Amino acid sequence: MASTTWILVANASLAKLYANHGPKKGLALVKEYEHPESRQKNAELVTDRAGYMQSSGNGHGARQPQTEPKQNEMRNFAHELASELNSGRTTNRMQRIILVAPPAFMGLMNTVMDDQTSQLVTDRLEKDYTKAPPKDLASHLEACIYL
I want to staple 137 with a disulfide (CB 3.0 to 4.6 A). Which of 22, 61, 73, 132 is the partner? Predict the structure, then answer.
């Protein structure tokens, strides 16, 4: 039986998970994910300003350092995708992973994936191919897929 490779093509707001079941078998779309919150402006994601702590005595209050809401949403999406990859690993639905994402999102994916799942990643392409049709994507990934 041929091993299955999952190809996750993602950016901060859109991801497509494909499966490849062996050389020259093409790509089959497994699932599509959208995370529109990552596309929103920070102001649209915030309901109030950064936390303000009143100090005691005569000193001034201090602002809490704030993570940009957009960064939080990107991280949430990366966690969701990493969880899906982990699930695929634990249920043996795939034996290998190829990650395709722009550099910033690739970095996030690398930090949120657990070690066992990360070990199945054989190739990382720092590109945004989320809009590429499967046929074009297959040709971009030919060197990775057709080993």
Answer: 132
Are 4 and 27 contacting, i.e. CB atoms less than 8 angstroms apart? no
Query: Residue 37 gets which letter from DSSP?
Result: G
> Per residue in 18-34, is it b (16+ CB within 10 Å) or e — as a string?
bbbeeeeeebeebeeee
Instruction: Convert the pLDDT of each residue in 100-130 to its tens digit.
Output: 999 999 999 999 999 999 999 999 999 999 9
Task: Confirm if 80 and 41 have CB atoms less than 8 A apart.
Answer: no
The tokens of 41 are what?
């402006």
CA distances to 119, 132, 143 from 31, in Å: 22, 15, 23
- Report which secondary-structure segment, H or E, holds 71: helix 69-90
Single pTM value for the model? 0.79
Q: Vertex 26, ends 28 and 144: CA angle to 5°?
A: 110
Report CA torsion sign: 69, 113, 86, 22.
positive
Q: Which positions ≥6 away from 126 have C-beta within 8 Å?
A: 101, 102, 103, 106
